[in-house]
């Protein structure tokens, strides 16, 4: 169905041209049969009815030349068939179509020249017609002016629609490019933060193994060798992680020496938002448990992103943070009464980043306006490995 609609939009004018040619051929034959007095042969009128509008089929390749060629054909026909009382509807129809097309040209000078050319051609036709009168010239010129005005108006509307469509396509492309760049940047940031989290844990493991190895008795040689392997493997893993993540870290960034933030620091984050002028209510449901380091960091970043959006973008007057510890998942919700918009599928780059973070741990992110007003950002993070 869409293909048929596309073909109809592209070739509707061609269909009109064919229909006009058919009407002109029939009219030429009927006009020949009803003539009074001498006249030219019918086949001349039929040929002219076909050849005069024919250049319009080439209008896409020659947008200015094709209508002008129609006018030249009308002029030639007026000299060839002019002495006879002829059926002149094909010339008029083709001329009106040419004026309509020229009026839609982006070059306004060409459009105005097309109208002037049509009036001049009609003047030649009237001059060559033994029955031609000045009133005919004025009447046809007025019709051409009306057709030109309609074509000019529609042409500007079509141009505005095409420009709007191009802008929309360009904006969509730019949005996709920015979104891909944001995803890549956020993934690099996640990798850097996970490096710091895992690196800290591996460092602790290595130090602990080294400490236990030094406390072993002299006869515990096998245990000492096993711990030495653990210690050596931990150091090699740390060195390899630093080399791999080094390409992701910006030149101005240095490895984090302090542990990454977690939900244990949530009170401090909420207090900072309050000091910035946003009243925030913090609620914790369920029994707080020790979370995996990555999940803990993701939950903290989500609250941080939600409060930042409420404070800087949504113009909220209050916000609420809910942390719910379940048996198999952690649910974090940040809601506000601001003017945040969107359905959670587009959003800003911060939301794109949060989706990446949550997806790393197999979680779900829901973001969008609330039915009663305001905006809500909610994530569910599974706790099971």
Can you describe this structure?
- The protein has 385 residues and is α+β, with helices and mostly antiparallel strands.
- The protein has helices spanning 2-33, 42-51, 65-80, 89-103, 108-128, 134-215, 221-246, 266-275, 293-312, 349-360, and strands spanning 280-285, 319-325, 329-336, 364-369, 375-382.
- It has a 5-stranded mixed beta sheet with strand order 1-2-3-5-4, covered by helices on one side.
- Helix 6 packs antiparallel against helix 7.
Tell me, rounded to a whole number, the average pLDDT.
77
Helix content: 55-70%
Taking the sheet with the most strands, its summary is: 5 strands, mixed
Cα(first) to Cα(last) distance is 49 Å
What structural class do the secondary elements suggest?
alpha+beta
Task: Give the strand line-up of the largest sheet.
Answer: 1-2-3-5-4
Shape type: elongated
Portion in strands:
5-15%
| Unreliable spans | 34-39, 82-86, 342-348
Give the ordered list of helices and strands. Answer: HHHHHHHHEHEEHEE
Number of helices: 10
Q: Tell me the number of strands.
A: 5
Radius of gyration: 39 Å
Q: What labels would you give this structure?
A:
385 residues, alpha+beta, five-stranded mixed β-sheet, 10 helices, 5 strands, 63% helix, 9% strand, elongated
List the helices and strands and how they pair.
Layout: H1 2-33, H2 42-51, H3 65-80, H4 89-103, H5 108-128, H6 134-215, H7 221-246, H8 266-275, E1 280-285, H9 293-312, E2 319-325, E3 329-336, H10 349-360, E4 364-369, E5 375-382
Helix pairs in contact: 1-2, 1-4, 3-4, 3-5, 4-5, 4-6, 5-6, 6-7, 6-10, 8-9, 9-10
């Amino acid at each position: 169905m869409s293909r048929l609609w596309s073909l109809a939009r592209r070739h509707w004018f061609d269909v009109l041209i064919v229909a006009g040619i058919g009407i002109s051929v029939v009219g030429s034959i009927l006009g020949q049969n009803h003539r009074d007095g001498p006249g030219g042969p019918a086949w001349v009128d039929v040929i002219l009815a076909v050849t005069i509008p024919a250049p319009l089929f080439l209008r896409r390749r020659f947008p200015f030349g094709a209508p002008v060629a129609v006018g030249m054909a009308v002029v030639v026909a007026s000299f060839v068939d002019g002495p006879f009382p002829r059926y002149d509807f094909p010339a008029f129809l083709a001329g009106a179509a040419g004026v309509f097309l020229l009026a839609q040209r982006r070059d306004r000078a060409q459009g105005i020249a097309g109208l002037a050319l049509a009036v001049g051609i009609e003047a030649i036709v009237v001059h060559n017609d033994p029955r031609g009168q000045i009133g005919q010239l004025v009447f046809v010129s007025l019709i051409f002016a009306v057709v030109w005005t309609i074509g000019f108006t529609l042409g500007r509307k079509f141009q505005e629609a095409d420009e709007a469509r191009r802008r929309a396509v360009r904006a969509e492309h730019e949005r996709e490019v920015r979104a891909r760049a944001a995803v890549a940047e956020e993934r690099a940031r996640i990798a850097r933060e996970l490096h710091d989290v895992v690196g800290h844990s591996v460092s602790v493991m290595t130090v602990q193994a080294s400490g236990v190895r030094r406390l072993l008795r002299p006869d515990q040689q096998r245990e000492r060798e096993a711990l030495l392997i653990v210690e050596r493997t931990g150091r090699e893993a740390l060195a390899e992680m630093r080399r791999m993540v080094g390409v992701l870290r910006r030149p101005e960034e240095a490895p984090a020496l302090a542990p990454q933030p977690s939900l244990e620091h949530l009170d401090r984050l909420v207090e900072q938002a309050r000091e910035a002028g946003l009243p925030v209510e913090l609620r914790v449901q369920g029994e707080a448990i020790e979370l995996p380091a990555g999940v803990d960091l993701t939950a903290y970043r989500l609250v941080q992103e939600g409060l930042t959006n409420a404070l800087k973008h949504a113009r909220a007057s209050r916000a609420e943070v809910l942390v719910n510890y379940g048996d198999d998942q952690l649910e974090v919700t940040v809601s506000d009464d601001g003017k945040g918009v969107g359905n959670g599928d587009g959003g800003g780059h911060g939301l794109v980043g949060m989706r990446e973070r949550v997806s790393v741990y197999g979680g779900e992110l829901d973001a969008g306006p609330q039915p009663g007003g305001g905006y809500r950002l909610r994530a569910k993070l599974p706790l099971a490995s």
